[in-house]
Amino acid sequence: xxxxxxxxxxxxxxxxxxxxxxxxHVAGIAPSPTHPPSTGLVLFGLAQVATAIAAAPLVSxxxxxxxxxxxxxxxxxxxxxxxxxWHFTAAVAASAGFLAAGLLPSAPIGSAAWWWQKTPLxxxxxxxxxxxxxxxARFERRALLADPAPWRHHPALVVAAAVAVSTSLKLWSLGNxxxxxxxxxxxxxxxxxxRPGRRPASAE
Length: 204
Known about the structure:
Elements: H1 2-15, H2 39-65, H3 67-78, H4 80-100, H5 112-145, H6 156-172, H7 177-194
C-alpha cells in the first residue's frame, strides 16, 4: 500500500507538479532534480525503497526455489559496487563516441523517440562497462578484504577533503578543458593525500 501510494505521489509530482521527468541534473532544466535534491527525487527514491521492501519476501522465496538464479544474484552482487562506481565512466566514453558520430539523443526527454535514440547508447555503455569492471573489480575486492589501517589524519581533514572533491567535480562539470584538468588533478591529489596504508589480507 505504501509503495503504491508513493508511486502515485511521485508520478503526480512530475505530471502535475513543477519537477522534471529526469532524475539527474541536466543543463537548462529548472528546478534541478539534484542541486539540491528535489522533492520529486526524494519521492522517487522512497517509492523505489518501499517497492523493494514489499517485494523482498516474494523474491527471496523464488530464489530459494531456483538455485541457478540465486548463484547469478550472488555473482552479480560481487561486482555491484564496481558497476556502480564505474558505470558513468563507460557512459561518458560511449557518449563521446556518439557525439563524434552525431548520434546523441536529440528528441525530448521521455518521449518515444528519445527512448529509441537512447537504447543504442545504453547498450554500448554496457558493452564498455563489462571489460572495465573485469579489470577494476579485482583491485577493489582486494582493497575491501585487506586489513583496515588506523586513520592517520586530523578529523578536520575530512571536511577539507570533501570541499576539495566537491570543488574539483564542479570544475570538471564546467565543460572547459582547463577546468576539467584542474578538477581531475584535485581529485587525484586528494586521493593520494588521504590514502590509508593497508596490508594485504592473509590467505586465511
